[in-house]
Automatic annotation (TrEMBL):
This is Ferrochelatase, mitochondrial. The lineage of its organism: Eukaryota, Metazoa, Chordata, Craniata, Vertebrata. One of its GO terms (molecular function) is ferrochelatase activity. GO terms for biological process: heme biosynthetic process. GO terms for cellular component: mitochondrion. Belongs to the ferrochelatase family.
Length: 139
């Protein structure tokens, strides 16, 4: 940190040349900023002085929200090399998605026209927040 101040002082030195008041003012300004930064860092390092926080990370594979979204969802699914690796995936993925889409659309039509996963994930998240607020209201 001291090296940074020396470098900054060298950069600002021409503006303060010949005027010791300007030079002192610049040094005081940098010293004040460094003190404030150190105090802030100490607060971040000392967790007992911070209010505890709780985070919830919920993940799912997603799903098509409407029947029209089914083909696009399947296409992304079959082209995603993190999920699966297929031979000639850039050709086979679209072929499988196009062929499977009508059957999958029919299944989603039977349960209301789209995937319920978003609704259920949001419901679970709200339940987790309520439960955590009851168990640990200070966080």
């Amino acid at each position: 940190m001291a090296a940074a101040f020396r470098a900054a002082s060298r950069l600002l030195h021409p503006f303060a040349k010949g005027n010791s008041w300007n030079q002192t003012r610049v040094q005081l300004h940098w010293r004040w900023q460094s003190t404030a930064a150190v105090q802030k860092a100490r607060l971040e390092i000392q967790p007992e002085k911070r209010k505890p926080k709780t985070g919830i990370l919920m993940l799912n594979m997603g799903g098509p929200e409407t029947l029209e979204d089914v083909h696009e969802f399947l296409l992304r699914l079959f082209l995603d090399r993190d999920l699966m690796t297929l031979p000639v995936q850039n050709k086979l993925g679209p072929f499988i998605a196009k062929r499977r889409a009508p059957k999958i659309q029919e299944q989603y039509r039977r349960i209301g026209g789209g995937s319920p996963i978003k609704k259920w994930t949001e419901t679970q998240g709200e339940g987790m927040v309520k439960l955590l607020n009851e168990m640990s209201p200070q966080s």
